[in-house]
Amino acid sequence: MFSLSSWKHLRIPFSFYLLPVFIFALAFTPNHNPERMLLVFLSLHLFLYPSSNGYNSYFDKDEGSIGGLKNPPKVNKGLYSLSLVFFLVAMILAAMINLAFAGMIVIYGLVSMAYSHPSIRLKKMPYISWLVAGFFQGCFTFCMAYAGLSDFGFEVLTRSHVLIPGLLTSLMLWGSYPLTQVYQHEEDAKRGDITLSLKLGIKGTFLFASIWFLVAGVAFAWFFLDRNQSWAFYGFLAALTPVILYFLVWFSFVKKNPEKYTNYAWAMWMNRISAIALNVFFFWYFLENTQILQVF
After folding, report:
1. What is the DSSP annotation of 40-102?
2. pTM exceeding the 0.90 threshold for the entire prediction
3. Which residue of 17, 142, 156, 202 has the fewest CB atoms within a 10 Å radius of its CB?
4. Is the separation of the CB atoms in 239 and 278 below 8 Å?
5. Could you read off the pLDDT of 58-82 as tens digits, one per residue?
6. Average pLDDT across the chain, whole number
7. Do the Cβ atoms of 208 and 246 come closer than 8 Å?
8. DSSP string covering 109-162, please?
């Protein structure tokens, strides 16, 4: 459990790529509390996500590159135990806020386990895994973070002012999710995992992602403009510009030579650029929106 290889598979720095959802939820939290903010951040980004990464790695036993690890070491039984310890710590930290938030942590963790566990293995179901991953890493996580930050319970899942921005995050993830699989076709096929990207093919994956990115962009534009936040709309466009440009350049290279440019390096740079741009935008939105909420 204490081996370096096990800790590498937790991929703790990879949590940075999921940080925009937390910050976006923070922007809508009505009652900020430093202690709850720290507990939610730690439970999600330092323990729950790494637990999920380690658990999935244990059952996937990848030999090729995976998100955050170009050359993943071989997994061992200790990784399985370590991932469960991290899951337990995430639940304990969440319970320090309230039991409902801890329950949401449990639900997320169990769904994540079902993604890779051989008895269910949602990863083998292309459309179901796409829907589940996008919903739980996006909308459900947004609602979960909102509940923890605000000391609320499961009722947040029924509130439109929470669900709507949460679903916006899922729209983005439904576009980017297949791109995270596009360089893993060979290894997924060997295991019998027919992922959505494998089913769509390389060029089909890029076309599919571009459609969902467009849908997400239009939805975010409607959301900000409907709230009379044109400043946020223009800021969102500015944040998306480097992401779109990189995506188009990558796609242009892939169309010319799919085998050469559909690789780990290009995919990870897509993740880095989008995560940095969205983290900066949502943090700025959090600061501006918090000032607006305080005025009212």
Report:
1. HHIIIIIIIHHHHHHHHHHHH--SS-BTTBSSPPPP-HHHHHHHHHHHHHHHHHHHTT-HHHH
2. yes
3. 202
4. yes
5. 998 877 778 777 888 888 899 999 9
6. 92
7. no
8. HHHHHHHH-TTT-GGGSHHHHHHHHHIIIIIIHHHHHHHHHHT--GGGGG-HHH
